[in-house]
Write a structure and sequence with these properties.
Elements (H helix, E strand, L loop, with lengths): L12 E3 L2 E3 L6 E5 L7 H14 L3 E5 L3 H11 L6 E5 L3 H9 L4 E4 L7 H14 L3 E6 L5 H7 L4 H17 L5 E6 L3 H14 L5 E2 L7 H17 L5 E3 L6 H14 L7 E5 L10 H11 L7 E6 L5 H7 L2 E5 L3 E6 L2 E7 L3 H14 L1
Parallel strand pairs: 3-4, 3-10, 4-5, 5-6, 6-7, 7-8, 9-10, 11-12, 12-13
Antiparallel strand pairs: 1-2, 13-14, 14-15
Helix pairs in contact: 1-2, 1-9, 2-3, 3-4, 5-6, 6-7, 7-8, 8-9, 10-12
């Protein structure tokens, strides 16, 4: 289904071979939580993220060993790698020379204009973009003194300040993020910056929390902004497995019809009319289909009240009866099977559809 959301037109920036902004699809990112200098562990995690659909990966570069590991990591992965650098501009330069496809720099701590100039000279030479990453937790001291706390206006002033620094150095391959762990602050900051610049925006609620709370906060914050047409790439920040960040990211985009990727599940919450173990069936089906990347709408419905209607709207689905389920395909019942065979039969039919 085509999205009714009209996205704001932004400049297109290339991160490796992936477009961010312009007419490019909204991409889903994540960040490794391994030690970057541990090449084998980092590569293993990135390959798992690739399998989940991750389109851009970021890795922390806190030391020289990590910067020097980038070339070896890059040789074994298939998606663009962005080096995340704080405090030391020399690490940013080394990461670029080692083959990073982009830099994420926190302007609050990377250093003075002279140091930024040295970084810009290198990224120009290697033709890679810079993400200006403003965080509420590391705002410049003068802005904290001016605004008393990291309110949206403070975050935006920081971002615009550093955009101007890069533009004065004749550098324009810029992506911008303005993150806070407070959802409302994030929303307001991105709304403000979107009115002031056409550079692509990287959306995220930083330090959102564990899987449950972080998913809720990210879905609310990112969902509102994406609905407003704001945002060109997203990262869901969760305290947990990075693969979950990618899964949640795609679910957010799918819910707004901004991306078609993998299985789009529709399942009812169950009620007293349900006569099959729908919760068990839905969880088993979702687990068995988690590897599928082809867009497909699957309905798992508990009874005949809404079940047949919802199933008809899906590519394929089931509607439960008394210890039996009807399997629908493109709006037509193709078979009725026992509750015990519901999962295996539905999965079998879905595999047939994918291979048709």
């Amino acid at each position: 289904m085509e999205s009714l959301i009209k996205r704001k037109k932004t400049k297109k920036v290339m991160v490796g071979n992936v477009g961010v902004g312009g007419a490019s699809p909204i991409t889903v990112q994540s960040m490794t939580n391994t030690k970057t200098y541990d090449v084998d562990s980092t590569v293993e995690q990135i390959l798992a993220l690739e399998e989940a659909g991750c389109e851009i990966i970021r890795a922390a570069v806190p030391d020289k060993m990590s910067a020097q590991a980038i070339e070896r990591i890059k040789s074994k992965i298939n998606i663009p790698l962005v080096a995340d650098v704080h405090f030391d501009y020399r690490l940013a330069i080394e990461a670029v020379k080692q083959g990073a496809d982009g830099l994420r720099i926190n302007p609050g701590n990377i250093g003075n204009k002279e140091k930024i100039q040295k970084v810009v000279e290198v990224v120009k030479e290697y033709k890679i973009p810079i993400r200006i990453g403003v965080n509420a937790g590391s705002l410049e001291k003068d802005l904290l003194e001016k605004y008393k706390k990291p309110i949206p206006e403070a975050l935006v002033e920081s971002a615009m300040r550093h955009i101007r620094i890069l533009e004065e150095m004749d550098f324009h391959d810029i992506v911008v993020s303005i993150k806070s762990s407070d959802v409302i602050t994030c929303i307001k900051a991105y709304e403000l910056i979107s009115q002031l610049t056409d550079y692509p925006l990287h959306l995220g609620i930083t330090e959102a929390g564990t899987f449950f709370s972080g998913t809720v906060k990210s879905s609310v914050g990112l969902g509102i902004l994406l609905y407003e047409g704001i945002g060109d790439t997203i990262r869901v920040s969760l305290t947990g497995e990075p693969v979950d960040e990618v899964k949640v990211g795609f679910e957010i985009l799918k819910s707004l019809n901004l991306r078609q990727y993998g299985i789009n599940f529709i399942s009812c919450p169950t009620c007293g009319r349900t006569q099959i173990n729908l919760i068990k069936i839905a969880n088993e089906v979702q687990e068995k289909l988690s590897h599928i990347k082809k867009p497909l709408k699957v309905a798992i419905m508990g009874c005949i009240v809404n079940g047949p209607g919802e199933a008809r709207e899906a590519d394929i689905g089931i509607a439960g009866g008394k210890k039996r389920v009807a399997i629908f395909k493109k709006g037509e019942i193709i078979k009725t099977v026992s509750e015990e065979d519901a999962v295996s039969e539905l999965v079998k039919e879905i595999k047939h559809m994918i291979n048709e």
